[in-house]
Write a structure and sequence with these properties.
alpha/beta, Rossmann fold, 2 domains, six-stranded parallel β-sheet, four-stranded parallel β-sheet, 11 helices, 12 strands, 14% strand, globular
């Protein structure tokens, strides 16, 4: 099977919404180019299945572009199936309330009034407004333009209702595929790996120091207590970590029992041979933890809407230890490492064959 990639002008989320990656280009010109290339792709490929990631649960700033592409696809191939591909945890509704409150307590103590007051855009009003928009953006768009929602998760860990409480208003099938997890078949032990080690991975790099630094200090505490048992700490600080931050981590490691790198393309093999994984709670890393079934300490990123919920559920199932980032310290991490290294991981019932089940679903949709 051949795959082709279609490159679109690069955009990013800026302070005022989406913008060209250089921050200075013509956004409208880039959006027109997007639409032209996508329209041409529909004509050339004539897809039987159009799979769209996240939207309409997010990516609302690209709504016009995505809906126009769906319309074009249906014009070219009226029998095409349009599928929403969704990770296990979408953006969470702030509550299940839709109607805004019409009367607010008129407190007179300044900041408190701002908190509750609609004219001041108080946080309570913002939550209600978000819920209203979330509902109006998701359910009607799914029902009008899509044929199915594929949730790449397992309902034993998380259900769509946990995050979008109006699932009953979705009139198309919601299918749980299981998690999409990288497999171990081709994992080869890295030649440079220590004999025994604990693995620290910080994600892309923006929050690398915030996680790696207390791990390094914790490891030094354990070394002082003679608790490492010959282990080293392997740290992947993030492909996009700033040079100054990486240099600071290297200085912090000194000549101690550390192996510090930015990134590896062979991460699953590193994790498979580790005695313990310490990481954020992103989808891919958590899937690596479930695939290798090693002890894990998760420090979820609060900046990411999904991580705290995922970490909590994995802890509830006995599959991970969790430290809230607000409580992270070298001492707490050292204690967690001691506990985790002495623990065993139970067999878990979670489905990890989401890629295969997604393929089968798409093939059945084409067959129909």
């Amino acid at each position: 099977m051949n795959a082709s990639r279609i490159f679109l002008p690069s955009l990013r989320a800026g302070a005022r919404g989406i913008e060209p990656v250089d921050g200075h280009g013509d956004l409208q010109a880039a959006m027109r180019e997007h639409q032209t290339r996508l329209s041409e792709a529909m004509e050339q490929i004539r897809p039987d299945v159009l799979c769209i990631e996240f939207f309409p649960f997010s990516r609302w700033s690209l709504k016009s572009e995505i809906l126009n592409t769906i319309v074009k696809c249906n014009q070219i191939n009226p029998s095409a199936n349009v599928v929403c591909s969704l990770r296990d945890i979408p953006t969470r509704a702030k509550s299940d309330v839709l109607q805004p409150i019409t009367e607010f307590a008129q407190r007179r103590d300044g900041d408190a009034m701002r908190f509750y007051s609609v004219p001041f855009g108080g946080i309570h009003h913002e939550h209600l407004s978000f819920n209203r928009r979330y509902y109006e953006e998701v359910a009607p768009v799914l029902n009008l333009y899509f044929d199915a929602v594929l949730v790449h998760g397992d309902p034993k860990l998380s259900q769509l209702e946990d995050h979008f409480p109006w699932v009953a208003d979705i009139g198309i099938p919601v299918v749980y595929t299981g998690f999409v997890s990288e497999k171990l078949e081709d994992a080869v032990r890295p030649e440079c790996a220590p004999n025994r080690y604990v693995l620290v991975s910080t994600g892309g790099g923006a929050e690398g120091v915030a996680l790696a630094a207390p791990c390094i200090e914790a490891w030094k505490k354990l070394e002082w207590d003679d608790a490492l048992n010959g282990r080293e700490m392997v740290i992947f600080a993030g492909a996009f970590i700033e040079d100054t931050h990486f240099d600071a981590l290297r200085a912090l490691c000194g000549d101690g029992p550390f192996h510090l790198e930015r990134f590896t393309s062979n991460f699953l093999a590193w994790m498979n041979d580790a005695d313990l994984s310490i990481s954020r709670a992103g989808y891919n890393t958590c899937m690596n933890v479930l695939e290798t079934q090693i002890p894990a300490i998760l420090v979820p990123s609060i900046a990411m809407d999904d991580q705290e919920f995922r970490a909590q559920r994995l802890m509830d199932l006995g599959l991970a230890h969790v430290i809230h980032p607000d409580h992270l310290s070298a001492t707490k991490m050292a204690n967690a490492i001691r506990d985790a290294l002495g623990s065993t991981v139970p067999e878990h019932p979670l489905g990890l064959n989401g890629a295969e089940r997604t393929r089968k679903f798409i093939e059945s949709a084409v067959g129909n």
